[in-house]
Write the C-alpha cells for this entry.
Amino acid sequence: MTSPLLQTTIAGSLPKPAWLAQPNQLWAPWIPEGENLAEAKRDATRLAIRDQERAGIDILSDGEQSRRHFVTGYLEHLNGIDFERLVTMRIRQRYDAKVPQVVGPITRPRPVHSDDVRLMRAETDHPIKYTLPGPMTIIDTLHDAYYKDRSRLAMAFAKILNQEARELEALGANVIQFDEPAFNVYMDEVKTWGIEALERAADGLKCKTAVHICYGYGIKANVDWKKTLGSQWRQYEETFPVIARSKINQVSLECHNSKVPIELIGLLKGKDVMAGAIDVASEQVETPEEVARTIRAALKFVAPDKLYPTAVWCRCRARSHSASSRRSPPALGSSAASLRQDDPKDEG
C-alpha cells in the first residue's frame, strides 16, 4: 500500500499531564511514586497516542512521557555514569549546568526503552517513531572524567545507542530518531566525527533513521543566544551538506517563525525533510492556513514525497498538557489533509 503524501508527525516530546509532573517546569520531578509512577507513565503515553490520533497525525511518538529529560532520561539507566557527584559544566557553549560525570566504561546492563515501544505498538496501528539522544549531544551534557576524548566517548555511546535502536526496531518502531541539537554548535566536529558517530548509532537499521537538530528552546540562555544570530540563522548552511552525504534517511528541523532561510532545506536533497510547521516558542495557536503556508513554502524546495510536516514540539515538555491539546497538531493534520486533496505535486 502506498503511503499518503505529506505524512505528519511530531519532533518528539509532548507536555506531560499535571498529575504526572509539574507543568511549566523543566526537569520537573515526578508526582506519583513507585508502581503508581510506572502506571502513570503508561497512562500518559496512552493519552499522548490518543491525542495524536485524534489530531490526524500519521507517524506517532510516545511524547517522551516516561522521561524527565531527553538526554539524562536515557543516561540514568547506564553504568559508568555518576549522578551523585555532579560537576558544573558549560553546555552548548551557552550556559552552565550541574551535570553527571563519566567515571568508568559506559555499559548498558539491560534494554532501556523496550517497554515503551511494546506499549506503543500495542496501543496503535499507526507507524511509530521513537527518539533517542544523539552521541554528540550526550557528550555535551555530561562531564568526561574517564575517556578524556570527546570523539572516543561519543563512539562509546554510539555503540550503546545502536544496541538500543536495533532492539526498538525489532519491537516494531518504524522510525528511530536521534536528537542532535549540538550539531548547531560544534560544526567542525560534526564534520570530523559527529556524523560518523551518528551513523554508527544507526548502523544496520532497516527502519527509517532520522536526526533532529534545532536552535534550542525552553530556557533563557537559548533565547538569548538566538538574539545574537542576526536576522538570518545560517548555521544549517554548514551542517546540511554534511548530513545530506550521510546514510541517515530523514532530517527534522524547525521552519515556522524561525529565522532559518527556508531555501536552506534545499541543501538536504535526497533526504526526507520533517519541516516544523508549529512554533514551539510561542503560545499563539497557528491556524490551518498558517500551517499550510509553511508547508507550501517548504514544497518549493522539497519534493512532496520527501516532505513530512511536523509539529516541532521538540523539548516543549515544560508546557501544560491542557494548553498543548488546544494547540496546533490538529491544524497540522487538517492542513496536510487539505493539501493532499489540492495535489501538492503542483506546488513546486
